[in-house]
Automatic annotation (TrEMBL):
Residues 302-323 are annotated as: Disordered. InterPro entries: AAA+_ATPase (IPR003593), ABC_Ni/Peptide_Import (IPR050388), ABC_transporter-like_ATP-bd (IPR003439), ABC_transporter-like_CS (IPR017871), MetI-like (IPR000515), MetI-like_sf (IPR035906), Oligopep_ABC_C (IPR013563), OppC_N (IPR025966). GO terms for biological process: peptide transport; transmembrane transport. It comes from Thalassospira profundimaris. Belongs to the binding-protein-dependent transport system permease family. It is a peripheral membrane protein; Multi-pass membrane protein. Residues 331-582 form the ABC transporter domain. CDD domains: ABC_NikE_OppD_transporters, TM_PBP2. This is Peptide ABC transporter permease. The keyword NADP does not apply. Residues 85-274 form the ABC transmembrane type-1 domain.
Length: 652
């Protein structure tokens, strides 16, 4: 077997990400400029910054031989500014490193070990924090004596609590996470866990805190020097220059404006760069987003080929959406294409999907992990995060209207209103700090003008409808006080809050045991019968499909490869992939049957092969399968398959 060379990571480099954030880039350029100037100052043709020249006192900027003028002793301001910036930078960065090292160490140890260690360390930190920090810094300098180094120590010490508190908070949030537990279970000792599990996770916070405090510390050191406690004459830093200039502010404004301007530029550029560094270090933003995800998935109409191109999924040769809308389908999807652009790679997560959901109908979307089911579901109401997600083509007709032509506010009104989602893990979708009753009230009042009391009554009714025992009391419970099955019922109650016409359920029973799963499926079936709700049910489990779905669409590598009624697909699968998928389902009582796993792996959606994406795993594949795009061909009675060598189908 030949192994393909590994493709270069699609993740944009840190520099590229920084370049995309214009403000951070500007900060980086200015800060780099100041640093370079500070570094080369000793080699620049500058006069001695401490050389006085009483004959040339208080010269204004642009004077002959003194570009920025002179101060009250006739010293060259440009030279003093560059040497002073050097000192301020060195002190600010050193104090920040010192505070970051000791503060973070205290925070990590305290947050990790907790208990008495945490108590002792944090009470110590609280004692330091009990003093106003600038008074504490003054007291430290007063005790140690005025001077730049003592100012550095004072500023570093008063900032240690800031790091310690911040980092302890982050550590406490991480220390009970599953990956730390699994490191413990694997036998790692405290030091290794601290270094390999905790530190890398708090590092971005340390760097971000540092990048934002360097500017602050430069200001604080400047403050001490301004008060005469930092740099001592004739040595200058930006603060002492500002202090000297302040005395002559009315007669020679440039003496204070120039160092003040430099402090402003320096602090501003460091803070802008700090924000950029935060965005780069956060792995969730590495996918290309330095910006907040847009409220609705970005639609890129430049890639639109018009409705339904060949092979995308018309069935029976008719333009799908029009035909389905005529049939009165609640949801009609035509040639939907959703992509993720990561660096130079384009991941075609949904590659031209067409299907419809009729009124009061339940359609199943089935497929292996990564086949594009969730992205399809999220695309329907523009919920795929942008960036990096983009709708690259297609139409989604909800009750005859194209969702992608709607205004953002209209789409928002539909979400949780006419169309509602139920997700796999209700614990992560329910708010941990509000009671389930309050969350239901919020969902109801987001779409209806009703009083809190009325909404609360409706919330209790909803809980009763989804068969939560003792709903009046349970409405006051918090998500963590309910069992997994109950939480999922609350998730369904939330979805039902505004009597939706369509429920999009993304693997709502996957995390539940079989008895609770059966109860939830029964509940959803009852709701369909009583309220006429339509359901798009996403699952990888054919057992669930047979329980609840009228029709089913099988997805593979971002495309629908087979579609038909549940009976057609389960009893007569036409696509070899569907057949293999059904054969993977264990059946009770069949002890002799060996579960046939599908060999190989699905292709990466950023590197899809020409022709059938399943060909490499299919024992029926021929050369023709790899020759070009394959259409979803009708087999009769609404059954369709995207295969040129389908299994033999015997329709009743
Ligand atoms: N934010 C993202 N950035 C890049 N690629 C993504 C992103 N979200 C999903 N994808 C890719 O889109 C493809 C489809 O993912 P999707 O979540 O729809 O699969 P799925 O069939 O729902 O799988 P599962 O059953 O495991 O949830 C996968 O290849 C996945 O890696």
């Amino acid at each position: 077997m030949t192994i393909k060379p590994r493709k270069r990571s699609a993740r944009p480099s840190a520099l590229k990400l920084l370049a995309r954030n214009h403000l951070a880039l500007m900060g980086a350029v200015i800060f780099a400029g100041v640093i370079i100037l500070a570094l080369i100052t000793p080699w620049l043709p500058l006069v001695n910054p401490d050389a006085t020249d009483p004959a040339n006192r208080l010269l204004p900027p642009l004077s002959d031989g003194h570009f920025l003028g002179t101060d009250h002793l006739g010293r060259d301001l440009l030279s003093r500014l560059l040497w002073g910036t050097r000192v301020s930078l060195a002190v600010g960065i050193s104090a920040s490193l010192f505070a970051a090292f000791f503060g973070s160490a205290i925070g990590i140890i305290s947050g990790y070990f907790g208990g008495r260690t945490d108590n002792i360390m944090m009470r110590g930190i609280d004692m330091v924090m009990a003093f106003p920090y600038i008074l504490l810094a003054l007291a430290i300098v007063a005790a140690l004596g005025p001077g730049l180094m003592n100012a550095l120590y004072a500023i570093a010490v008063v900032n240690i609590p800031f790091f310690a508190r911040n980092i302890r908070g982050v550590t406490v949030g991480i220390v009970h996470r599953e990956f730390v537990d699994s490191a413990r279970l694997s036998g790692k000792g405290h030091i290794r866990i601290l270094l390999s599990e905790i530190l890398p996770n708090v590092m971005p916070v340390i760097v971000i805190t540092m990048s934002t405090t360097v500017g602050w510390m430069i200001l604080e050191t400047a403050g001490l020097s301004f008060l005469g406690l930092g740099a001592q004459p004739p040595q200058a830093d930006l603060g002492s220059m500002l202090g000297e200039g302040r005395k002559l502010i009315t007669t020679a404004l440039h003496l204070s404006a120039i160092p003040g301007g430099m402090i402003f530029v320096l602090v501003m550029s460091i803070n802008l760069l700090g924000d950029g560094i935060r965005d780069i270090l956060d792995p969730r933003l590495k996918s290309g987003a330095l910006a907040r995800p847009a409220p609705v998935t970005r639609i890129d109409r430049s890639t639109w080929d018009g409705p339904a191109h060949a092979g995308s999924g018309h069935v029976n040769g008719q333009p799908g959406a029009k035909r389905d809308a005529e049939k009165g389908a609640i949801l009609s999807v035509e040639d939907l294409r959703t992509e993720f652009v990561l660096g130079d790679d384009v991941y075609k997560a949904v590659g031209g999907v067409s299907f419809h959901v009729g009124r009061n109908e339940c359609v199943g979307l089935v497929g292996e992990s990564g086949s594009g089911k969730s992205v399809t579901a999220l695309s329907l109401l523009g919920l795929v995060a942008s960036p990096p997600g983009t709708i690259a083509g297609g139409r989604v007709m909800l009750d005859g209207r194209d969702v992608f032509d709607m205004h953002e506010q209209e789409i928002r009104a539909i979400r949780g209103g006419r169309a509602a989602y139920v997700f796999q893990d209700p614990l992560s979708t329910l708010h941990p700090l509000f009671s389930v009753g309050d969350q239901l009230v919020e969902a109801i009042r987001a779409h209806n003008r009703v009083s809190y009391k009325e909404a609360w009554q409706k919330a209790v009714e909803l809980l009763r409808m989804v068969r939560i025992p003792n709903p009046e009391k349970r409405a006051d419970s918090y998500p963590h006080q309910l069992s997994g099955g109950m939480r999922q019922r609350v998730g369904i109650a939330m979805a039902l809050a505004n009597e939706p016409e369509l429920i999009i359920a993304d693997e709502p029973t996957t995390a539940l045991d079989v008895t609770v799963q059966a109860q939830i499926l029964k509940l959803m079936n009852n709701l369909r019968e009583q309220h006429g709700t339509s359901v798009l049910f996403i699952t990888h489990d054919f057992g669930v499909v047979s329980e609840i779905c009228d029709r089913v669409a099988v997805m593979y590598a971002g495309q629908i490869v087979e579609m038909g009624t549940t009976q057609q697909v389960l009893e007569n699968p036409a696509h070899p992939y569907t057949k293999r998928l059904i054969d993977c389902v264990p059946r009770l009582g069949e002890t002799a049957r060996e579960i046939a796993a599908i060999p190989g792996l699905p292709p990466a959606v950023n590197d899809l092969p020409v022709g059938c994406a399943f060909a490499d795993r299919c024992d029926r594949a021929a050369d023709a399968c790899r020759a070009g795009a394959i259409d979803l061909d009708p087999l009769g009675d609404g059954h369709a398959v995207r295969c040129i060598k389908p299994m033999e189908v015997r329709h009743a």
